[in-house]
UniProtKB/TrEMBL annotation:
Transmembrane segments: none
EC number(s) given by UniProt: 3.1.26.4
PANTHER family: RIBONUCLEASE H2 SUBUNIT A (PTHR10954), RIBONUCLEASE HII (PTHR10954:SF18)
Cofactor descriptive note: Manganese or magnesium. Binds 1 divalent metal ion per monomer in the absence of substrate. May bind a second metal ion after substrate binding.
Organism: Gracilibacillus oryzae
Pfam family, one: RNase_HII
Primary localisation category: cytoplasm
Entry annotated with the keyword Transit peptide: no
Binding site for a divalent metal cation: D78, E79, D170
Protein name: Ribonuclease HII
Any GO MF annotation of the entry: manganese ion binding
GO CC aspect terms: cytoplasm; ribonuclease H2 complex
């Protein structure tokens, strides 16, 4: 690089290589405002990447401890859909390889829809195994949501095609499993495996609710995912409930 390069050429060079201190030193001698803005931008990106890398290392602690103790297949387990008035509760179990690396992985609720979809594809392509457990509204009404959630989690674990050595579970205690477990409060923010499971569960359930929207368009399930939004409650008052509503959740509404 030299002063004869256009700003676009400099940016293309950085994008095709890597932002380094050496490149920064060279560019600092270029007083063009556009070049100085590039320095600020790539410095900011480098700092963000460093922070995300540290976050990933911190969130890998539970997995590393179990791998280092000789356990090979560690399953992360999480669920979505405990609170909605309609639709299933969905749990996911995910087993990641020891070399898994995804900067920015986090609790699915903290991610945008586009990011969740992108991470979903990366996780499903790179996981050693993943499965979901789905409990429909009728069974939720029969069991109660707490027991239905536990059943969905166990179902996801039991469907995994691997001999699991240990499970990291978001908040819940699961009994009578043939392997050791850890129940981790806010586990989707503390474990990459649980975070991956939360993304799989969230994307799976959101896709199901989009399909339900096509069947019951008045309720706008593609937007509210079955939660008790104002529009959803108005639709219930106007059209009544559907086959996917949880009657046990609606006792004070209908």
């Amino acid at each position: 690089m030299d002063s004869t390069w256009t700003i676009k050429q400099i940016q293309s060079y950085i994008e095709s290589s890597e932002w380094t201190d050496e490149i920064k030193i060279v560019l600092q001698n270029d007083k063009r405002k556009g070049v100085q803005k590039l320095i600020q931008y790539y410095d900011k990106q480098a700092k963000l990447k460093q922070e995300l890398n540290q976050q990933f290392i911190t969130m890998s602690r539970f997995e590393r401890e179990n791998w280092e103790s000789g356990k090979q297949f560690i399953a992360g387990v999480d669920e979505v859909g405990r609170g909605p008035l309609a639709g299933p509760v969905v749990a996911a179990a995910v087993v990641l390889p020891a070399d898994f690396y995804l900067l920015g992985i986090d609790d699915s609720k903290k991610l945008t829809k586009q990011t969740r979809e992108r991470y979903y594809h990366y996780i499903t392509e790179n996981a050693l195994a993943y499965q979901t457990g789905i409990i429909e509204p009728v069974e939720i009404d029969q069991l109660n949501i707490y027991q239905a959630t536990k059943k969905a989690m166990k179902m996801a674990l039991e469907k995994l095609p691997l001999n699991i050595d240990h499970a990291l579970i978001d908040a819940m205690e699961l009994e009578n499993l043939p392997f050791t477990t850890d129940s981790i409060i806010k586990g989707d923010q503390k474990s990459i495996s649980i975070a991956a499971a939360s993304i799989i569960a969230k994307v799976t359930r959101d896709r199901m609710m989009v399909q339900y929207h096509e069947q019951y368009p008045h309720f706008h399930f593609e937007k509210n995912s079955g939660y008790g939004t104002k529009d959803h409650l108005e639709a219930i008052n106007r059209f009544g409930i559907t086959d996917i509503h949880r009657k046990s959740f609606l006792k004070n509404i209908i």
